[in-house]
Amino acid sequence: MSMIRDLRAAVRPALRKPKPAYSKYDTYDATRDPSASSAVVDCAVYRDGRRVTENPCVTPHEAMLRVRGGGGFAWIGLHEPTEEEFAGIAAEFGLHPLAVEDAVHAHQRPKLERYDDTLFTVFKTIHYVEHAELTATSEVVDTGEVMCFTGRDFVITVRHGGQGSLRALRHRLESDAELLTKGPSAVLHSIADHVVDGYVAVAAAVQDDIDEVEIDVFSAPAKGSPRGSDAGRIYQLKREVLEFKRAVSPLLRPMELLSERPMRLVDPDIQKYFRDVADHLARVHEQVIGFDELLNSILQANLAQATVAQNEDMRKITSWAAIIAVPTAVCGVYGMNFDHMPELGWKYGYPMVLAAIATICVTIHRTLKRNGWL
């Protein structure tokens, strides 16, 4: 009998049906850990500018059913979904396969694309990495991505990277019912504004780093630190600014389109707000271009200082070589083994030669020092 009980215990788990990926008992909220097994970090329906809190939806499928049955729009947030996790959502909302592929694999250029009745927008998020001291290996900016699918009655955000969380943004939007009544385009504008505000903050921090490097380059070097030793820091900072530029520059055209060209999926009242975002982005772009040019000038100045320092060292070496050449030449002459040489038999010949050598060396030294070689 004990053997039969053991056999039943082993067979029963295998006969149980596996739990579906989206069960009605699952719950998704903004406090879910992004590293959890599910890619969905939040799923909600908004109606009349308010989040529907009674019987909250627990799956994207339920959210879409409630939108189709009672109006409003759904906002689904995902973090680094796999192809399998995103396949069901893509089929439910009719997302284009090319946009889905971009959203899953990430590492995309900022852009705005339209697929039928869906806008697909890619944003590069930038986060400033705090550091006690800027070195030749310091990481200055950390990048991530936010993809946004915007339809008539849904918004799907896909986030990649450890930065750029939209949790605070969602909470802030939920406190502004008037803005949420504008629908999915209001969410798209808020995401764009949130990303560009991050650019502004990072630009200010990078400016401080550039100012610090500039001061170090044009100030007296520390004891034991040669001129031109800042080249590594400058080059590293330039690489980080280039990464910043890759996030900002491609986004200019999408923001211009959203702020100037009428679109069916963008509310006309919200389009006015996109102009403000485009203006802020243009100013950040000008700053980043200025950073790049300024770092080029600082790098050239640093290399010029190193060249000048090397020339000064060579002049000093040459000056001392000229001074040492005098006693070397005299001693070389009197070191030859000839019987008949001047002053060999003179009593004061030796001190006289030493005095002549010292006099010539002192004269050369004073002349070179007066001319700035020593």
Helix content: 55-70%
H/E element order: HEEHEHHEEEEHHHHHHH
- Radius of gyration (Å): 36 Å
Structural category: alpha+beta
Q: Strand arrangement, largest sheet?
A: 2-1-3-7-6-5-4
For the biggest sheet, the summary is: 7 strands, mixed
**Amount of beta strand:** 5-15%
> Quick one: how many beta strands?
7
| Shape designation | rod-shaped
The residue-averaged pLDDT reads 82
Uncertain segments are: 1-37
Distance between the termini: 104 Å
In short:
With about 375 residues, the chain is of the alpha+beta class. The protein contains eleven helices and seven strands.
Report on the structure:
This protein has 374 residues and is α+β, with helices and mostly antiparallel strands. The protein contains eleven helices and seven strands. It has helices at 2-15, 60-70, 83-93, 97-105, 167-174, 177-180, 184-218, 231-248, 252-260, 268-334, 349-370, and strands at residues 40-47, 50-51, 73-79, 111-115, 118-128, 141-150, 154-160. Strands 2-1-3-7-6-5-4 form a seven-stranded mixed beta sheet, sandwiched between helices. A hairpin with a 2-residue loop joins strand 1 and strand 2 (50-51). Helix 7 packs parallel to helix 10 (268-334). The longest helix has 67 residues, at 268-334. The chain is rod-shaped.
What key attributes describe this structure?
374 residues; alpha+beta; 7-stranded mixed sheet; 56% helix; rod-shaped
